[in-house]
Write a structure and sequence with these properties.
This protein is mainly alpha-helical and about 120 residues long. The chain has one helix and no strands.
Length: about 120
Amino acid sequence: MSGGDIAGLIAAGVFLILVALLAVPILKLGGVLDELRRGIRESVDEITPTLAETQVTMQETNKQLAKIDSITTNAHEVTSNVNSLVALTAATVGGPLIKLAGFSAAAVAGFRALRPKGRKRR
């Protein structure tokens, strides 16, 4: 063996050690990527039912909101009707009551005018 052959063997050995040293991080990186892929797959498997349940919950919530909307619409109509009824009652009963109050005040004043002045009220 000559010096060149020995140098070639040393270079091949160094290259083999370098490849071995670089292979370890690459293998570890492959393991990390496998774990990452497995974790993503598990997350997707767990999120899918949650999203389905969320969709059902949102549909039920929308149904309940539609019911509440109809209830508030009905309540608004009832308050409008009561307001109209109160206004109508005030207009119907209010006028005669005002006339009756005026008549009563005039009658009291008339009776007082007719009463003799010397007589005291008990």
